[in-house]
């Protein structure tokens, strides 16, 4: 907790740590893991849906997600679904249908990468900008906030001063990773890793990690 407190003091030296709402967001490969994360204190969980997610072998059916959402809400937790691959032209219509289906399950937000989603005819669901968007500057953070993203996941390699600058320049909720196993500082290296292993570049091979975010 001392390390997290230091982060918040750097984000805004004029306020105390207790005035911030700190949330712990946990990944979950499936609904069972999501339930355990919530029971052990996670404020929110992000989980892959049945398609267009960047985590390899981490997809879940609409039925599983629909059953998970009321469980999470019963404990005051939120469910975010990743839809964070770059979409090809022939994937836009299926992605639009999936977004509508996910909205109907009651999920709290979608984590996305492709800006083309903003042009689709989708229901009023909250959108979060994925770490795949490579958000490392104030200008990019402000742009994403201006076009409607309510939460932005910063690039992992930012230092505390850079995080603070972005935090002070935008009204969007800032999210950043506090623990990771396989993820490396230079995101482009994932492309080389995945090509070597014969996996599509838009499908991430990620181990478990945790993130936290602040308003």
UniProtKB/TrEMBL annotation:
It comes from the Bacteria. It holds the Pfam family Peptidase_U32. GO terms for molecular function: hydrolase activity. It is an enzyme of class 3 (hydrolase). Its EC number is 3.4.-.-. Keywords: Hydrolase. InterPro entries: Peptidase_U32, RNA/ubiquinone_mod_enzymes. This is Putative peptidase. It comes from Escherichia coli. The lineage of its organism: Bacteria, Pseudomonadati, Pseudomonadota, Gammaproteobacteria, Enterobacterales.
């Amino acid at each position: 907790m001392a390390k997290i407190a230091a982060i918040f003091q750097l984000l805004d030296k004029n306020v105390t740590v207790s005035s911030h709402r700190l949330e712990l967001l946990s990944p979950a490969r499936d609904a069972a893991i999501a339930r355990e994360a919530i029971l052990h204190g996670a404020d929110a969980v992000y989980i892959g849906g049945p398609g267009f997610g960047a985590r390899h072998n981490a997809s879940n059916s609409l039925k599983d997600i629909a059953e998970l959402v009321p469980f999470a809400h019963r404990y005051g937790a939120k469910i975010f679904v990743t839809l964070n691959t770059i979409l090809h032209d022939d994937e836009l219509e299926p992605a639009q249908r999936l977004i509508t289906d996910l909205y109907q399950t009651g999920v709290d937000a979608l984590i996305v990468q492709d800006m083309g989603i903003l042009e689709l005819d989708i229901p009023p669901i909250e959108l979060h900008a994925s770490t795949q968007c490579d958000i490392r500057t104030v200008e990019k953070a402000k742009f994403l906030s201006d076009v409607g993203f309510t939460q932005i996941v910063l690039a992992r390699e930012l230092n505390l001063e850079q995080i603070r600058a972005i935090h002070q320049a935008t009204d969007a909720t800032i999210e950043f990773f506090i623990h990771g196993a396989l993820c490396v500082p230079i995101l482009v290296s994932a492309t080389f890793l995945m090509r070597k292993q014969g996996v599509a570049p838009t499908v991430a091979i990620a181990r478990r990690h945790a993130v936290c975010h602040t308003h």
